Amino acid sequence: MLKRGFLTTVAAVSLMAAAALPAKAEISIMYMESFGSLIESGIAKFEAETGEKVNAIKLPGQGYDQRIALDLSAGTAADVNLIDSFMVSELASAGYLLPLDEQLAGWDQYQYYLPGLLEVASYQDQVYALPTDTDVRMLWYDLSNFEKAGIPTPWEPKNWADILDAAQKLKDAGVQYPFQLPAGTKQAEAATMQGVYMALLGADVPEGDRNRLLKRDTNQWIGDSPALRRTFELYHQVYSEKELNPADLNYATDIGAAVRAALANDQLGILASGSWEDACLWDCNNPPSREERDAQVGWTPWPGSGEPGTKATTNISGGWTIGVNTNASDKDLAFKLVTTIFDEANFKAWTLANHRMAVRTDISESPEYTADPFLAKATALAADTTGRDTIPGYQTVSALIQQATSDLVDGVSVDEVVQTYHDALVDEFGEEKVITYE
Q: What is the per-residue pLDDT for 285?
């Protein structure tokens, strides 16, 4: 796997003497294949500029987060790694990631990064990774299936009841997957972010942290609340009570591929997902044309629950990052690879070609970016977004949320799921770290 240390080459420099050339470090990077076009163009430029060879380890998305965590904890990780932003604080707190502030201060392009997006890649006020992109979340819908079900478009649901009503009409019209709401442990963070948190944020009045998993001023996890119960009830209605969606897509061998195939084949009605779908409807590395996308799908913001005083729409943002392993064989060279990948020309070309939401003002304010109709509209949603509760322990809580959705899909009652979730939090963190909202 990772080959550490230096590769030394000895060459004769004259007939009279021989000298060892400078040691040549092999630098390695691990990343998901969906980011190949960004990282591989950066690798090519880095190799051309430095003469160094990069060991590129490209993996599929399924199970990638678990692989990163295992490799870093085992000391076998690559020198540079693509990391989901929700993992940064926990990996940094464990000492697996290199703080980058000192080196970033000397990089002339660092000034363009949006401070709020650097926060998700930080721990205790130090930056440990650079974001590749950010995102917003929304409901995508298949235009032909909406026409088949007699639902007018553009579709603009005002509350959860409107979503459930549309899903019922799609079901009655014979659509195989009326409302694909991510659920289950195999969906991993998608179940937490695209599903639970998007509903949770609009489930109750926006007072303090009543709509979150964490009470942020005290760092206590919320084990029970009206918002949590309403969110779990939504899952119960979709998958159990009203049977508005089969569960099988959540357990497919490659969930992303299965969901996108269902959408491409007009088998899906509503999909709870994010802004990346604008490029990934069929293939993340080979985006469909604007005309193809707009002919097949529409999108709308997630509405609040409709309970009195709740938000009209909700959003939560995340994104991926690239960071340096604390045990990188050559930290300066590893940092050079990171900044080469993020060099303005390479980074901007990838952001535009893949319809990604920009994390830097030199890209987001460029004429090419603002001319993209989807990016211009979707980026506006980020004005009222929030981030995950990325403190150490979040990964455990997210896993418990995923298990809760799995139980709801299996028909377990909301009361039982809430009690199990609460008790698991207490077992993991202690009673003083778990609270209940009435």
A: 65
Q: Whole-angstrom Cα distance, residue 350 to residue 37?
A: 7
Element (H, E) at 57: strand 54-59
149 CA to centre of own chain: 31
User: pLDDT tens across 305-354, in order?
Assistant: 999 999 999 999 888 999 999 999 999 999 999 999 999 999 999 999 88
CA distance 74 to 286: 35
- The answer to whether the bond into 206 is cis (omega within 30° of 0) is no
**What pLDDT score does 362 carry?**
95
pLDDT confidence of 119, banded at 50, 70, 90?
Answer: confident
Q: What is the pLDDT of residue 17?
A: 33
Single-letter residue type at 23: A
Residue type, 230: R
Q: How far apart are CA 398 and CA 154, in angstroms?
A: 33
pLDDT in tens, 7-16: 222 232 232 3
**Residue type present at position 354:** N
Please report, as a single letter, which amino acid is at residue 267: Q
d(CA 28, CA 366): 32
Which regions of 167-296 does DSSP assign to beta strands (E)?
Answer: 177-180, 214-215, 220-224, 268-274
Q: What is the pLDDT of residues 383-404, one digit of tens each?
A: 788 888 878 899 899 999 999 9
Of 329, 325, 423, the C-alpha closest to 74 is 325
DSSP 210-260: TTSSEETTTTEEEEE-HHHHHHHHHHHIIIIIS--S-SGGGG-SSHHHHHH
Residues whose CB falls within 8 Å of the CB of residue 276, separated by 6 or more in sequence, listed in order:
135, 284, 356
> Is residue 328 within 8 Å of 79, Cβ to Cβ?
yes
Burial class (CB in 10 A: 0-12, 13-18, 19+), 362: middle
CA angle 245, 250, 253 (to 5 degrees): 135
- With tokens 């139980």, the residue in question is 407
pLDDT band at 410 (very low <50, low <70, confident <90, very high): very high
434-436 and 220-224 strand pairing: parallel
- The C-alpha atoms of residue 210 and residue 202 are separated, in whole angstroms, by 10
More confident residue, 380 or 229: 229
Ordered structural domains, the chain, with CATH: 6-131+319-384 (3.40.190.10), 137-317+390-436 (3.40.190.10)
Listed in sequence order, the DSSP H helices in 249-343 are 255-264, 277-280, 290-296, 331-341
